[in-house]
Write a structure and sequence with these properties.
Blueprint lengths: L6 H4 L5 H7 L13 E2 L11 H10 L15 H14 L9 E4 L2 H12 L5 E6 L3 H10 L2 E6 L9 H7 L4 E7 L11 H14 L2 E5 L25 E6 L12 E4 L2 H14 L5 H13 L1 H24 L5 E6 L2 E5 L7 H12 L1 E2 L1 E2 L10 E4 L9 H10 L3
Parallel strand pairs: 1-11, 3-4, 3-5, 5-6, 6-7
Antiparallel strand pairs: 2-8, 7-8, 9-10, 10-13, 12-13
Helix pairs in contact: 3-10, 4-10, 5-6, 5-9
Bound molecules: pyridoxal-5'-phosphate.
Pyridoxal-5'-phosphate (PLP) binds next to helix 5.
Length: 390
């Protein structure tokens, strides 16, 4: 007789990006119509040359093969705390920062610290699929808060109606994956007030904060001296510094929660990969100009994308777009998002993620991680969408 598996894990969907990538695995593409891959949100360019040179030089150091402190290199926690305090004009200390093996792990440890089986966590819909999957595997009920059809923004009053005595947190992702929507500071403030009123956490995933279009701080929550009672901020070093495979992210929260985070990180990873932490430290300390350049490059890509849709209507509606992503409504009524996405992969050599992977009610949508693309390919992307209709 074979062993039995945890039913919570077997019931969860297969990793969505791997499934989408499987659609083109083993295929080769003609030079006249190369693969345009806007499925996974992963920077296509390597990290800065100075960062790579720094890591190469550090590799011989005796401490490079050792574990770091569970919550990360003190210098990185210090540098990130200073950086966060600066960009939000707030007060964050090194003790408020924990380093994790990517933002996904930051979310897992945050929710494990806050909630257990039978508890509830509010997720905006469409959601970032890994968060839904993790909650399901933990036996935590994900309660969905649909965003507005026109602006892709969640409504705090609608969220209020979803809260129950079992609710432990509301999760917001801004700029959003998959919609690209940037939540205005006042909206984030309203969710913070709602969470505080109910004695629950506001988990704010700001993985894409370096690519915001708006100037000024994304929100004023760190200016509140009591932010630690409510706010849990998550961050990723993957995108802006091109460090996705180095696995490094961060969590900012108050002390009682950080003690639980430390226990959980100790068990699952002992610490985030040291080489990733060294890379992140270099990034925070030395790559301010690089960050600003990435922001500008991606803003130009977004402008190119909008222009391509305006001047050459591809028949797909750009529902929302910003930071890293565009969320499109496809024109094929009655067809599932997966059918449409698979056909784009098969016939147009265009790989994107069907909306249905981001939750129920998303069959009309497709997600494009346009920021991956060379700007020169964006008109070609619009062209292929147009030709998919004919
Ligand atoms: C919203 C969001 N959070 C977290 C992550 C994971 O980031 P990391 O590579 O730091 O684990 C991603 C990656 O795509 C993401 O889109």
């Amino acid at each position: 007789m074979s062993y039995r598996l945890n039913a919570h894990a077997t019931a969860v969907v297969a990793p969505p990006i791997a499934e989408v990538q499987g659609w083109v695995r083993g295929r080769s593409f003609p030079a006249s119509k190369p693969l345009i891959d806007v499925a996974q949100a992963v920077p296509s360019e390597p990290p800065a040359a100075t960062l790579r040179a720094h890591l190469a030089a550090r590799l011989d150091a005796a401490d490079m093969s050792l574990y770091t402190d569970i919550l990360g290199l003190p210098a990185l926690r210090e540098a990130l705390a200073r950086h966060v305090s600066e960009i939000y004009a707030g007060a964050v200390t090194a003790a408020d920062i924990g380093i994790t093996a990517g933002c996904n792990q930051a979310f897992c440890v945050a929710t494990a610290a806050l909630a257990g089986p039978g508890d509830e966590v509010v997720l905006t819909l469409p959601y970032y699929f890994n968060y839904q999957m993790w909650l399901e595997m933990q036996g935590i009920r994900a309660v969905h808060l649909p965003v507005g059809a026109r602006d892709a923004l969640p409504d705090p009053e609608e969220a209020r109606r979803l809260l129950s005595p079992r609710t432990r947190a509301i999760v917001l992702v801004t700029p959003n994956n998959p919609t690209g929507a940037e939540y205005p500071p006042e909206l984030i403030g309203a969710f913070h007030a709602l969470a505080r009123e109910h004695g629950i956490a506001l988990i704010l995933d700001e993985t894409y904060r370096d690519f915001r279009g708006a100037d000024g701080p994304a929100h004023g929550l760190f200016r509140d001296p009591d932010w630690r009672d409510t706010l849990v901020q998550l961050y990723s070093f993957s995108k802006v510094y091109s460090l996705a495979g180095y696995r490094v992210g961060a969590i900012a929260c108050g002390q009682p929660m950080m003690e639980s985070v430390e226990k959980i990180v100790d068990c699952v990873a002992i610490c985030a990969p040291r080489i990733g932490q060294e890379a992140a430290l270099f990034g925070v300390q030395h790559l301010g100009r690089w960050r600003e350049e990435r922001r500008q490059i991606i803003a130009e890509k977004l402008a190119t994308l909008r222009r391509a849709f305006r001047t050459n209507d591809p028949g797909y509606e750009l529902v929302s777009a910003g930071a890293y992503f565009a969320y499109l409504r496809h024109p094929f009524a009655g067809e599932t998002a997966t059918e449409v996405a698979r056909r784009l992969a098969d016939r147009e050599n265009l790989l994107c993620v069907p909306g249905s992977m981001f939750g129920p009610g998303q069959e009309s949508y497709l997600r494009f991680a346009f920021a991956n693309l060379d700007a020169g390919l964006i008109p070609e992307l619009a062209q292929r969408l147009a030709s998919s209709r004919g």
